[in-house]
Amino acid sequence: MNHNLYLQFSGNFERRPEKVLIDTPSGEQYRYRDVLAISRRMAHVLRQSRVQPGDRVVVQVDKSPQAIMLYLACLQVGAVYLPLNTAYTEAEVEYFLTDAEPRLYVCRPTDEDVASRLARRCGVAGVETLGADGDGSLMTRVAEAEEDARIAELAADDLASILYTSGTTGRSKGAMLTHANLAANSQALMQTWRFTADDHLLHALPIFHTHGLFVACNIILTVGASMTFLPKLDPEQLIDLMPKATVLMGVPTFYTRLLASPRLDKRVTANMRLFVSGSAPLLAETHREFRERTGHAILERYGMTETNMNTSNPYEDDQRRPGTVGFALPGSEVRITDRESGKVLPAGETGLVEVRGPNVFKGYWRMPEKTAAEFSEDGYFITGDLGLIDGDGYLHIVGRDKDLVISGGYNVYPKEVEQWIDDLPQVAESAVIGVNHPDLGEGVTAAVVLKPGEQLDEAQVLAALKDKVARYKQPKRVFFVDSLPRNVMGKVQKNVLRSRYADIYQSAESVEK
Ligand code: MLC
Ligand code: AMP
To answer: Which tens digits make up the pLDDT trace of 361-373?
Structure first.
């Protein structure tokens, strides 16, 4: 049996060729038949470029319908789709190319020079470009290519994608997601959230992460529905489009920014059947405010790059509980264990959240020890999140055991930023923390200790980080301290720092987006 995820989508290309799969606010429309034809031509170009099943194709491009066609072409060929955030710096991309050893690197036309230089340095054989408007060298080749309708024959645990996720050591790890992982998760979500071919999704998330790519696009492709692709979050544009849509998926910042618009009300949301939130905690207060204004209870779910989606609040809106992430999805299991003993804890007790099921990834790319360290003996993935399951079975995420900041739904591992700050000759040590931020949930914030007699200001630290790490990882504020608070074991007490700076983003002037 062929387990290629593409087969889960392919029936829709035959059943509804005339139906629009993706449209854009500027009026472009891509029907199922267009997407099929272009993706098959892309598959031809990939094969011409000697991309074989199992080869990695790194894609670092702006959001566009063509980027989804490239994803589909990779599935057809059996290549491993490896999307990267366009915000990554050259240094960050160099690491990914070296680690993943892709056959092909597809970048934005404006990045071609840097990309070619990087490809030469990292031994990547091919570079193509793809622009936001479907321009670039890839599409020039596609225009001349024939359609190649072959679909690679794959096993369930062959890789469909690798998504890099930073680690607490500061070194990024490639999470290997199989065809079976992605197929199982979109099936479970489709059922739980009652998607049908009549749905129309407002898609304003980036498509280089689990949320925007696998949760959003895979469901739409599986049920044969349609979506509007927006390049980025623009709350007014979303509100304009809601009367013709049925579903929105977003990170909590989507909902706080929508609430900031006086236009958001019951009337503009009347056609919508579902608002989904995830990737970061949604404040119960935001849930309640949204319900009051629109009559809709936001459905919160919980997932991870490594595991896809694990839990969801129930579809029945009176059973959705603010501040909780609901129940394990069909086929998945969730338990809470004691941090020290590893024993499973009863309802109401807080511990590590562990998950098991067909959604859970195969492991970290070329890191067997790291993979083994994050699984329990009986096959549960240890998420590093802290949670409890209440008496009614709802999972609450109450914190994180891992040192991680989530800013606007993007993960920032403090260690990575601290290492760059510590490299500055004037710096003795630093600690990077997430501080409550009204727009982004958490704002990346640094506390820096200088070496005796040295001088440095906030602007200099920020300037030094500029080309090192992606913009969203750079601190919103830098503070200088005489020493970092430590416990008796010598460990930096980040909680002390978090409470010291708890109010810095609360006043309107200090809130930077
Ligand atoms: C952008 N900026 C950010 C930022 N996003 N800074 C911190 N945190 C963020 N999340 C910076 C930019 O670099 C820029 O800086 C300035 O803010 C404005 O940029 P922008 O592009 O205009 O930002 P905006 O459109 O306002 O984006 C904010 C956002 C976006 C929250 C809408 O970040 C977003 O769509 N986040 C979703 C991330 C996501 O998909 N996460 C899912 C991961 S999967 P300057 O200085 O250059 O102006 C996952 C698993 C799961 O977690 O469970 O889903
Ligand atoms: P990522 O590694 O980018 O996939 O981010 C996964 C992490 O996001 C999880 O381990 C959680 O810490 C967090 N997360 C995702 N969804 C939620 C949610 N609904 N509530 C709280 N945290 C969440």
So the answer is: 999 999 999 999 9
